[in-house]
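User: I'm writing a tutorial on reading structure tokens. Could you give me a worked example: one chain, its sequence, then its tokens, then a sentence or two explaining what the tokens reveal?
Assistant: Sure. Here is the example chain.
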Amino acid sequence: MYKRQVLTCIIVFIASLAVYKWKGILEPLKKKGAAFVFFAAGCIISVNWGLYIWMVNAGFIIQTSIGYYIEPLMVCVFGILFFKEKPERYKIAAILLALAGVCVMLFSYGQIPVLALVLALAFATYAALKKKLQAPALLALFYETVFLAPISVGIILYTELNGKGAFSVAEPYQIALLSLSGLFTAIPLSLFAMAANRISLIALGITEYIAPSIGLILGIFLYKEPFDIYQFIGFLIIWCGLAVFTAGGIRSHREAERQKAEIEPAGVTEASGCENRGADS
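And here are its predicted structure tokens:
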């Protein structure tokens, strides 16, 4: 995790320098309280990463899956509560369907998934902080990682010097894959930050169901993981919610385009009338 954080910081810094230059890199820090929010976001995403890795290694794989199905709902709730977003009817329907699907999965699990809730809350809080900052994606990710980089470097040096680090025990191909972890972390998190800046948290939350759904499909068909009837029903209900969200979004976009098309000719006609009156006088 610590190597991933440092490598991400280096890659994002190089990209930020190429795009924004030195002056542009310092720009986000001029906002009051921005440094603290960046630091908080970095800490929260680190908790998310660390908890996920520990849960997988400790055998809580089902809870990790549940956590990433709960998290989009929390993002939607944060959008409504903290950013006063007003969802249209189709978004409410999509959220309720997603909630129903998650409830089915929770019922099949048979107990309160505390770790899954913490995992979900951490990433939902991270999404809310990204929305609050409204900073360029590359720069936001750079500051989230750079403030924690000294701690990560210290831990890496300690583990490597004591023969417990990845570079001390890993095979060459594993080291090569590890070196790519920074790039494969920077790209999706940068895209996530761009989305958080441009769309509502409700829309962001609903579309986040795509990733765990793909993971579930890969787990079933590629890795032959067990898949019971409750998971199937929950999965089906959630995807019905995604279908409602997509169809409603397309309809809403078409309606907005239609209204825009009706307004523009009226504006052109009015402008032409003014020109004609000016010519007559």
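What the tokens reveal: The chain has a mean pLDDT of 82. The chain is about 85% helix and 0% strand.
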